[in-house]
Amino acid sequence: MNHIQIETSSIMSIAEGMRNGNMTSKNLAEWAIANRRDRGSKLNAYKTWEPKQCLSESEAADAVFLSGIDLGPFQGIPISVKDLYGVKGYPTFAGCSRELPDQWQTEGPVMRSLRKQLAVVSGKTHTVQFAFGALGTNVHWGTPRNPWDDKNHRVPGGSSAGAGVSLWEGSALLALGSDTAGSVRMPASFTGTVGLKTSRGRWSTEGIVPLSTTLDTAGPLTRTVEDAVLAFSVIDPRTSDKAEGFRRNLLQSSASDFHVGICDWYFDSCDPGISEGVKAALDELSESGLKVSSIKCGEIEESLELFKRGGLAAPEFASFINNEMADFRNDLDPNVSARFEKMESIEVRDYMAICRKRLELAISIRETMLGFDAIVGPTIPISPPTLEEVSESKSYHQHNMGAARNTSTVNMLDLCAITIPVCLDKKGMPVGLQIICPLNLDEKALAIALSFEKVLGNARQRIGTPPLCP
To answer: Given 160, 166, 183, 212, which residue is catalytic?
Structure first.
């Protein structure tokens, strides 16, 4: 299997290639390292990059193969990990200027599920400091570059800032991120990759530096929906013991099996080319049999208003910094610290009121969605801004809120969602279609996305490749 085939093949096909002798895990690691060498200086996806360790882990995976032991499809597969996760052998900075205490270096269940299969860690990707930001900027370590613009440094989306970039760079085949208001889906949408926001409580967040103990979720970014299904089947505790059957069932789905609701609110105030591109994709899907109807969801707009008031993440983050991470208070990125006084000022009664209202809305939207398999719309209504455009505080906060407008509603309403790339906007930047399903129907979200990918094609087929990653 040559480098071109690795670029275009699914993780499962690559895994099969290792099992039939067409390639080794070391070959994969060398491919990832070469790509990082050729493209990495331009893209800055990683906080910590250890090629020697990557090679060592790949050689260990190959040795286990040679002994006749097959631990699962991720054996020998290079993955990148957001620098909020504890990863053995790698420091955790969480976007800070210095390393976090030892308690944040321990691997949690999500990481352990991939370690059990001897996945190879390619490195730890950049994050917005303490994950508190939608654009992907970091004053301490620099901002990864969105690979879709070879003339301007555009943001990659946050807070899992380096995750989607690492996939196009070719230094990883799976990227682990976390999502509190869209931090998996925003970088996925901005970079033209697939991002899954799992249901709250579905995957453990142990071993991941928290932003909001209520809303945090772990999730993968992948090159295709097919790869996302594979990652979910291995990591998800409810499906990992029946992973092969789970994947087989999802592959049988077609767009005609589903009825989705188009919520006009998600299409409001979109930059040129975004709503038009998403609607065009939905028209193609409708022609292939997808059942489409209009749906009105007042709960969505109300949830955004709660989010603008600070939601739950802001006061919970303020409590975390003022207590467990007090030593890092003076180290905060200006874009984070500028909002800190407002976060601290949220009183307990206001926080409790938001909690109660959020739960009311979450219950209500489940009833609103009855009869629909999902709600669909643009993942992000704005095009990725340039780093220069967000260098001033007021502009930063406007773009930050704009990026999170559509995605934050999913977290606030206890839903799950997946974003898939469907077009390029008028600036030539990727546009995501967000598929939103009720709590704990992650499997349905994946099935719908997979049926859409069969019709529309994956990212390479649909929107091509980024100028900086030809």
So the answer is: 183
